């Protein structure tokens, strides 16, 4: 048993560096000057890219292990930001985030897996299905505005029938179009246009987006009836959802027609397409979308639902739609995170998406601070780098079974945090870009004609 | 913001007919009738448990009446969602103040503008020019309201940190920001001292004249009701027992009985 102090120091420095990096990125994104913004983003990207490629002695600054942590943290940050939107900002206690993460991971992985196999059906069916499904849902919602007061379950039935029909059309259309596309893949010896690396990169990008959109549409169908439940019951129902998704994953080759997912044995051979460029791009996109949404009228409406549903209703806010909106967008982020995750790890096992592991995002979101986006991002990176990085290796040096102790240590840390700082590490504080735009107080200009009574 | 629709002075702002609400076997409100004319300042009084707040909740759509009709500017609102009724032009405050506690004063008021924000989610996400102008307009209008209520200096305070009197003012400001034609005030003077009540009465008069509102208020403080209401309806056990001007109500034997018990009228 040997304890490596140098490793400990370097790991702590790496965690501090990652948190500093996040702060710097958010600061640059939030800067008023466009030039600094652009330079900051490029710099933030380049610093990590360098750390991943510059070699010192016999190892990179960020070795393969750190690289895995980095991508895992990016994916986790997206999942946790989505959960924060649902739980932290909209006040709906959800355990379903992990299920949507899994849906995103498997959907995106299936697309690229099939593509590298010379089968375009994955992309075609998912893409057409998501677009058609989205259009169908939008169309039905427009139609339903004319029939106010329709029971939720009737509306749900309509949406479900519409989505299933859209899915059916997508499968048929995808199969037909695939026949046209398959010659373009070429053979192993003479790869065609569609087998080229740039095409694959584009397919990956689309796959992740479509996987997110697919998770969002599933969450719409699931959330529509279930969000009418109170928050606690909603939590139980979403837990059920995660279990359903997990069960379907375990049996994906038997009860679902996806032999390539290989059920409980796990899906292997997913092309490892997630580069730092993609992870960074998706993370920044998610951060920007989330921030722009929160600091807008829609964001305020979402928060008012958390604060007081009755008051929100009386203020003219459609509480049901706003809950659904937050849930759908949160799931979209989770789906994107899943797509990013699947393509760096290259292997998907249903065990990863077990509902027990699904508590991790919940813990992280509480840890970082409910209602703080900066807290979510910082806690995701801190959590992964500390728990999976530092603790795992440090404990690993103390014996082969010792890393299990981290599951004793972190709950204690969590307990202490809840006692000392129940609002989470950051509370509701935000960093740089994520801070609410300042509105300067107005000093009254002209003397009013009518004397105004004050209540002091 | 949508332009204020033209008001037909012939149609009463609020017209309620035969409104009844059962909670299980309990009859909370029974055959309640009320007409509030355009620009009127009407009061609804009665002992605790008389069903006043239940009537308010039915008008604002939080409760569905067992039977009866509610017409707002001639349009039936029964069965509408609360947010639709608010967007139609009925604003309200609550007996136990219901602000958005951990949002700032400014955001509390800005939320009331959400239905008239003038931009959608997409505009917000891409931060286009439409978002910029509309959001600025919206913030400026909210700040106008804060200025009217002398709240502009505390716009960044969280609502939960304010003293009681200011919370009341924020709640009224927020209700007004939802652009109502009819304002329902549920016990606005609750928990206020006599000096605060005087300023509140001035405030209610002021907002009615300034925003050209019709106001219906529930109140226990007789000084408020008798001081500012032009028309009073008295409820007891879910039924209307008297209606008239403050003068008429003050001499009404049934009202004195409802408040003080049988026999009190002869003693008084």
What characteristics describe this protein?
heterodimer, A: 456 residues, mainly alpha, two-stranded antiparallel ribbon, 15 helices, 4 strands, 2% strand, B: 268 residues, alpha/beta, Rossmann fold, four-stranded antiparallel sheet
Describe the structure.
The complex is a heterodimer of chains A (456) and B (268). The relative contact order of chain A is 0.17. A two-stranded antiparallel ribbon of chain A has the order 1-2. Chain A has two domains: 109 residues, no CATH class; 295 residues, no CATH class. The longest helix of chain A has 30 residues. Helix content of chain A is 67%, strand content 2%. Chain A is built from 15 helices and four strands. In chain A, helix 3 packs antiparallel against helix 14 and helix 7 packs antiparallel against helix 12. The model of chain A has no long low-confidence stretch (mean pLDDT 89). Chain B is of the alpha/beta class. Chain B has a domain of 184 residues: Rossmann fold (3-Layer(aba) Sandwich). In chain B, a hairpin with a 2-residue loop joins strand 4 and strand 5. In chain B, helix 3 runs parallel beside helix 6 and helix 5 crosses helix 6. Chain B is globular and about 70 Å long. Chains A and B meet through helix 9, helix 10 and helix 11 of A and helix 2, helix 3, helix 4, helix 5 and helix 6 of B.
């Amino acid at each position: 048993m040997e304890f490596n102090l140098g490793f400990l120091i370097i790991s702590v420095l790496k965690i501090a560096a990652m948190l500093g990096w996040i702060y710097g990125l958010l600061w640059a994104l939030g800067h008023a000057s466009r030039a600094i913004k652009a330079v900051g983003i490029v710099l933030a990207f380049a610093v990590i890219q360098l750390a991943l490629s510059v070699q010192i002695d016999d190892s990179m600054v960020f070795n393969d292990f750190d690289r895995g942590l980095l991508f895992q943290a990016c994916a986790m940050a997206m999942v946790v930001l989505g959960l924060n939107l649902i739980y932290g900002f909209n006040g709906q206690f959800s355990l379903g985030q992990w299920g949507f993460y899994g849906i995103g991971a498997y959907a995106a992985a299936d697309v690229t897996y099939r593509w590298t196999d010379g089968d375009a059906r994955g992309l075609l069916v998912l893409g057409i299905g998501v677009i058609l499904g989205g259009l169908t849902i939008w169309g039905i919602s427009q139609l339903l505005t004319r029939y106010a007061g329709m029971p939720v379950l009737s509306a749900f039935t309509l949406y479900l029938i519409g989505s299933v029909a859209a899915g059916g059309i997508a499968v048929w259309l995808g199969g037909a179009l695939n026949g046209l596309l398959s010659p373009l893949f070429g053979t192993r010896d003479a790869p065609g246009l569609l087998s080229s690396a740039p095409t694959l990169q584009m397919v990956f990008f689309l796959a992740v987006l479509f996987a997110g959109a697919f998770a969002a549409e599933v969450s719409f169908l699931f959330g529509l009836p279930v969000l009418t439940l109170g928050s606690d019951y909603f939590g139980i129902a979403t837990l059920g959802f995660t279990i359903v998704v997990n069960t379907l994953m375990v049996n994906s080759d038997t009860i679902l027609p996806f032999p390539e997912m290989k059920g409980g044995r796990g899906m292997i051979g997913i092309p490892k397409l997630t580069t730092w460029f993609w992870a960074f791009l998706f993370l920044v996109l998610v951060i920007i979308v989330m921030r722009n949404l929160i600091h807008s009228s829609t964001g305020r409406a979402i928060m008012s639902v958390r604060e007081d549903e009755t008051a929100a209703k009386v203020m003219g806010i459609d509480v049901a739609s706003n809950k659904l909106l937050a849930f759908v967008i949160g799931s979209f982020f989770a789906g994107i995170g899943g797509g990013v995750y699947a393509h760096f790890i290259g292997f998907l096992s249903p065990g990863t998406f077990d509902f027990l592991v699904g508590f991790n995002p919940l813990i992280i979101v509480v840890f970082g601070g409910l209602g703080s986006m900066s807290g979510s991002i910082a806690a995701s990176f801190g959590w992964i780098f500390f728990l999976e990085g530092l603790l795992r290796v440090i404990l690993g040096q103390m014996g082969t079974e010792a890393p299990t102790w981290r599951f004793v240590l972190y709950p204690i840390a969590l307990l202490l945090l809840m006692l000392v700082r129940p609002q989470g590490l950051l509370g509701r504080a935000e960093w740089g870009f994520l801070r609410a735009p300042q509105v300067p107080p107005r000093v009254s200009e002209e003397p009013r004609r009518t004397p105004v009574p004050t209540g002091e | 913001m949508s332009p204020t629709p033209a008001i037909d002075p012939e149609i009463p702002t609020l017209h309620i007919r035969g409104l009844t609400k059962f909670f299980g076997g309990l009859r909370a409100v029974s055959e309640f009738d009320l007409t509030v004319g355009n620009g009127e300042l009407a009061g609804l009084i009665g002992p605790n448990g008389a069903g006043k707040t239940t009537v308010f909740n039915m008008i604002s759509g939080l409760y569905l009446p067992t039977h009866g009709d509610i017409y707002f500017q001639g349009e039936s609102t029964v069965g509408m969602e609360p947010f639709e009724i608010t967007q139609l032009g009925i604003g309200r405050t609550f007996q136990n103040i219901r602000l958005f506690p951990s949002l700032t004063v400014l955001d509390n008021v800005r939320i009331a503008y959400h239905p008239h924000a003038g931009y959608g989610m997409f505009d917000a996400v891409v931060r286009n020019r439409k978002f910029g102008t509309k959001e600025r307009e919206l913030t400026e209008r909210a700040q106008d309201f804060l200025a009217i209520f002398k709240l502009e200096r505390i716009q960044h305070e969280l609502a939960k940190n304010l003293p009681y009197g200011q919370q009341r003012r924020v709640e009224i400001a927020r209700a007004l920001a939802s652009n109502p034609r009819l304002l329902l005030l549920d016990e606005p003077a609750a928990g206020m001292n006599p000096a605060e009540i005087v300023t509140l009465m001035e405030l209610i008069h002021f907002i009615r004249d300034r925003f050209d509102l019709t106001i219906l208020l529930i109140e226990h403080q007789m000084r408020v009701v008798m001081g500012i209401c032009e028309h009073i309806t008295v409820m007891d056990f879910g039924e209307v027992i008297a209606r008239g001007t403050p003068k008429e109500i003050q001499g009404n034997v049934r009202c004195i009985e409802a408040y003080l018990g049988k026999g009190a009228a002869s003693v008084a």
